[in-house]
Amino acid sequence: QVQHVESGGGLVQAWGSLRLSCARSGCATYFMGWFRQTPGNERELVANTNYMGDVTHYTDAVKGRFTISRDNAKNYLYLQMNSLKPDDTAVYYCNSFPPEDPWGQGTQVTVSS
Fold this sequence. Notes:
By secondary structure, this protein is an all-beta fold. The chain has strands at 3-7, 10-13, 18-25, 32-37, 44-49, 56-58, 66-71, 76-81, 90-96, 107-112. The strands form two sheets. It has a six-stranded mixed β-sheet with strand order 2-10-9-4-5-6, with no helix packed on it. A four-stranded antiparallel β-sheet has the order 1-3-8-7, with no helix packed on it. The protein is globular, with a radius of gyration of 13 Å. The N and C termini lie far apart (40 Å). The relative contact order is 0.33. The mean pLDDT is 97.
């Protein structure tokens, strides 16, 4: 069964950086993505990438600041987040794209101003 375990979140000051990791167990999937959710809001797509990592898509709010990448040998997905803003505060999740597998616990990212 597919499982996702996200890590790397934490508390960081504005303009700081974090690198999130996602370990996926089970079968690999062609498209994978990072999603985020804040209290009272729906989960939203942040970025996704294809299997080779050479096709990527970012939501406008993170373009130029976040970079998605993957290591298929390890079945890992990463999100490098730079120039963080308080609006990036959320719980971050990874999943296939579109999301069809069970969600993990997520990792909390808190950006202070």
